[in-house]
Design a protein that fits this description.
The protein has 144 residues and is α+β, with helices and mostly antiparallel strands. The chain has one domain: Hotdog Thioesterase (Thiol Ester Dehydrase, Chain A, Roll), CATH 3.10.129.10. The protein has helices spanning 33-50, 133-139, and strands at residues 14-19, 62-72, 81-89, 95-104, 110-122, 127-129. Strands 1, 2, 3, 4, 5 and 6 form a 6-stranded antiparallel sheet that branches. The chain is globular and about 45 Å long.
């Protein structure tokens, strides 16, 4: 099987810092798979909050994550503060991709890359819906 590769944009319009907690470690004593996705979700929540949105209310639509890919570049350890950079890409009719780069804030060493695919969802009607226009306007051909 071919290795997963995640192409990152040249710039990330949003970043936040998140420390690695003891609960984020696996039995190998480094950042675990599940925690990488949790950290990416936290960064996504912070990006959405900057626009006045939440995952269940992005201009009236909810989000559902439909896929995820993680590529490790180095180990992350307890107490390390991660700089998590976020970009929105490939805004489509019903969804988009979120791209993340997690790096050691102190050294700049890249720890992981993450790509999550999301679709917009109406939780009342239980169906996928169109990308809200305010989201499209915020993340198409502009800064995130």
């Amino acid at each position: 099987m071919a290795r997963v590769e995640i192409e990152l944009p040249e710039t990330f319009p949003f970043s936040t810092e998140i420390p690695i907690r003891i609960d984020d470690l696996n039995y190998g004593n480094h950042l675990g798979n599940d925690s990488v996705l949790t950290l990416a979700q936290e960064a996504r929540v912070r990006l959405l909050a900057r626009h006045g949105w939440q995952e269940l209310d992005v201009a009236g639509a909810g989000l559902i994550q439909v896929d995820a890919a993680v590529v490790y570049r180095a180990e992350g350890h307890y107490g390390m503060v991660l700089k998590v950079e976020v970009a929105v890409a490939d805004v489509r009719t019903r969804g988009c991709d979120f791209l993340f780069r997690l790096s050691d804030a102190a050294s700049g060493k890249e720890i992981a890359r993450v790509k999550t695919g999301i679709v917009f969802f109406d939780y009342v009607a239980h169906k996928v819906i169109h990308t809200p226009e305010p989201f499209r306007a915020a993340f198409t051909n502009s800064g995130n």
